[in-house]
Amino acid sequence: MNIVDLIQRDMLVPALSSTSKSGIIKELAAYLSARHEDVDKDALTKVLIDREGLASTAIGEGVAIPHGKLPRVREIHACVGRAPQGVDFDSMDGQPTYLFFVLVAPENSTGAHLKALARISRVFKDADFRRRLLEAPDADKMYEIIAEEDAKY
Which residues span the domain enclosing 140? Predict the structure, then answer.
């Protein structure tokens, strides 16, 4: 499974305005639900906040992968957001989080969901890739960088 199979060009948010963990989640849930009719904004917000209550999805090095499952979702949907100012997302390394990869999957998609999470984690571990995403001037360039990096694996 490739990242570009999960995300379209219009699913990148280069400048999130929220400055808190809950604000980032709400902003990304609203963005994703506005573009996918099978995703309910309030349900997605709740499932992402509930997931964060178990343990932070901030994996360190400026990256978080908020994720969850919803019953009405027909296929995996994803959204990438960037907070240029950085946000305290309770990261494992205690550092601010800048890049957010939201993943929402159907309730019965355990295998595909786990494969997607593993792929995202692997790609986002590369420091040069993260730096290029942070420096990209807009969503189109962010998408190109993701596609280039994704093709390496």
Answer: 3-151
Kindly list the distances between the CA atom of residue 118 and the CA atoms of 41, 65, 115, in Å, as whole numbers in the listed order: 25, 10, 5
Residue 37: phi and psi, rounded to 5, are: -65, -20
Residue 37 token pair:
């009719």
Residue by residue, what is the 3-state secondary structure of 105-133?
EECCCHHHHHHHHHHHHHHHCCHHHHHHH
In this predicted model, what pLDDT tens digit does every residue of 21-68 receive, in sequence order? Answer: 999 999 999 999 999 999 999 999 999 999 999 999 999 999 999 999
The tally of domains found in the chain comes to 1
Q: Is 36 annotated as catalytic?
A: no
| CATH at 130 | 3.40.930.10
Say what percent of the chain tops pLDDT 70.
100
Residues 36, 67, 77, 113: which is the catalytic one?
A: 67
One-letter amino acid of 81: G
Nearest one of 71, 74, 66 to 31, comparing CA atoms: 66
Yes or no: say if 123 and 129 are a contact pair by the CB < 8 Å rule.
yes
Q: What is the mean pLDDT of the chain?
A: 93
pTM above 0.85, yes or no: yes
